[in-house]
Please model this.
Amino acid sequence: MINKKASQFILPAEWQKHEATWIGWPHNKEDWPGKFSPIPFVYAEIVRIISKGEIVRILVENDSHEKKARKVLKSVGVEFTNIEFYKIKTDRNWLRDAAPQFVIDKDGHLNLMHFKFNAWAKYSNYKKDKYIPGFISHKLKLPIHPVIHNGHIVVLEGGAIDINGKGTLLTTEECLLDPKVQVRNKNFTKQDYAGIFNQSLGIKNIIWLGKGIKGDDTHGHIDDLCRFVNENTILIVSEDNEKDENYIPLKENYEKIQDAVLEDGSKPRIIKLPMPSPVMFKGERLPASYANFYISNYAVLVPTFNDPNDKKALGILSDLFPNRKVIGIHSVDLVWGLGTLHCLTHEQPFIDFPSIKA
Model:
């Protein structure tokens, strides 16, 4: 159902021009137990590439943490012209989820939408991360708007949604509507979310898929499953191995999306993206997915997993982003933290968008 009601805010698409990308420099070794040592170098490579086309704003714990970060960044040849450090104590540093949403108001000004972060309704160590939106608001001197519904601030992670910048949003029923497991907002309906997303993010149309991928401890984040790559093209992951536990839920999602329409009533172009073979560590399946790519000004960064399908995924994305470099980032160690490139980044749009017509 398409909502025609106007909002005074809009959430720009990830492929639109950025002023900056926010990340949090890794420090919580519990996120990568037994595998932490290579993680700062993976982050450094990510920063090196992104900083070629925009500012990278890095959250660090203190002066000592910043010094360590600078040492690693220097070792991989990062130019510090586009690097800024901000000191704040954090828990997990998955900024896709803990950071605010950067929206544009009807006058073309940048605002922050503050959804509550509660560590995916699963973990207890988020008491510091919940202050990140207010911290960014203070540092950038930007207005911040808590998203309230029925007297409570709405729980939402950035990885739970993906948008086309024109009013259509992708999400999953498993993440936002499950009544028993990792419940974000008790008793919320699709109609509740439609109103919330319309008023806070300028969303007119929601495409609901079913379940997320296996191994995803967020319980159904869309950014491992299905992504917009332009205003009318959607990539959705697909599993060809009938014995894989992802086979049936991903097939069901592909069937669901055949009925999807965009905000103007037109049908989106749907393209399949392969899945890598299962990535396992200590008997646990990890959420390895090529859909967790990040679109920066300079390049599209794509997680790779030493898998034959790495080349196929990079090829598909290269065809879809002819004006950006498409670069694979080795993520076998990174995904042990139960997230990869999109999970750890958060874009801040560059303000050159036209004013929204009310």
